[in-house]
């Protein structure tokens, strides 16, 4: 039980990576706040984990005051707060020609400012318990795809936030802040998005080795396993780190020509 008695908020945990992380946290002894925008799906997760281990909070992260309400939900339900997983993100196609300022601001609000606000609201409790923050970024944060411009910028900003607070909060308050950057992951939303873009329902069964040398893309459970290290005490004094979780190197990669 690597997370025994810890209380963890996992944003965007009604589906996908967040759901997998929340389930793995409970399996490791933690209690969790499930968060998202889908009440039915969120309740299914709570029912699976049990009401002694999980509570549900449905609210858009762009709404004023949501960070404090998430923290209050955790503390009122379980009496403490040990960690925050900033997983929720708005993934939307955009490029220089299709992005207006209102759209860009909304992406930044959800993907960058909301994680900051939640860390800020949670800090008194994280400081008390020498807790930690795990931000879930994206390999797109290093540059990104042409049609994921605003999303990629928001994840690049999240990396800078992680490094900045990972230094400051660790020295001043004993709170570690780290980040994992997933590559291409087979979540429910990703499967649906690609199908909506014209790909067959089972598109993920035939992925080019350029994008998936192993023959498949990453599963959410594999990211959840990696997340536990950063949330557990065994990661010790490590803070301010960004770790890419992809199946090939990003910088200087030479993909096969065939």
From TrEMBL:
**Matching SUPFAM superfamilies:** NAD(P)-binding Rossmann-fold domains
Lineage, opening ranks? Bacteria, Pseudomonadati, Bacteroidota, Cytophagia, Cytophagales
Q: Which residues form a coiled coil?
A: none
Q: Which organism is it from?
A: Larkinella rosea
Q: Which domain of life is it from?
A: Bacteria
Which family does this protein fall into? Belongs to the short-chain dehydrogenases/reductases (SDR) family.
Supply the name of the protein.
SDR family oxidoreductase
Q: Which InterPro entries match?
A: NAD(P)-bd_dom_sf, Sc_DH/Rdtase_CS, SDR_fam
Q: Which PROSITE patterns match?
A: ADH_SHORT
């Amino acid at each position: 039980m690597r997370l025994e008695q810890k209380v963890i908020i996992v944003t965007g945990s009604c589906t996908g990576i967040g759901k997998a992380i929340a389930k793995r946290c409970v399996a490791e002894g933690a209690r969790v706040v499930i968060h998202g925008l889908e009440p039915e799906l969120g309740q299914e997760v709570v029912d699976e984990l049990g009401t002694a281990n999980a509570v549900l909070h449905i609210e858009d992260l762009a709404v004023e005051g949501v960070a404090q309400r998430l923290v209050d939900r955790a503390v009122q339900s379980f009496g403490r707060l040990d960690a925050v997983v900033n997983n929720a993100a708005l993934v939307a196609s955009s490029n220089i020609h299709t992005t207006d300022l209102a759209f860009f601001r909304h992406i930044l609000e959800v993907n960058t400012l909301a994680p900051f606000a939640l860390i800020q609201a949670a800090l008194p409790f994280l400081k008390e318990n020498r807790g930690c923050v795990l931000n879930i970024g994206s390999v797109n944060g290093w540059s990104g795809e042409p049609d994921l411009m605003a999303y990629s910028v928001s994840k690049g900003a999240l990396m800078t936030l992680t490094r900045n607070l990972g230094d400051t909060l660790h020295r001043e308050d004993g709170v570690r802040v780290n980040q994992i950057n997933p590559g291409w992951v087979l979540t429910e939303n990703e499967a649906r998005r690609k199908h909506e873009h014209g790909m067959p329902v089972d598109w993920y069964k035939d992925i080019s080795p350029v994008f998936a040398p192993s023959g498949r893309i990453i599963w959410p459970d594999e990211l959840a396993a990696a997340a536990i290290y950063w949330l557990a005490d065994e990661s010790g004094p490590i803070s301010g780190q960004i770790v890419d979780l992809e199946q090939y190197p990003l910088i200087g990669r030479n993909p096969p020509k065939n």
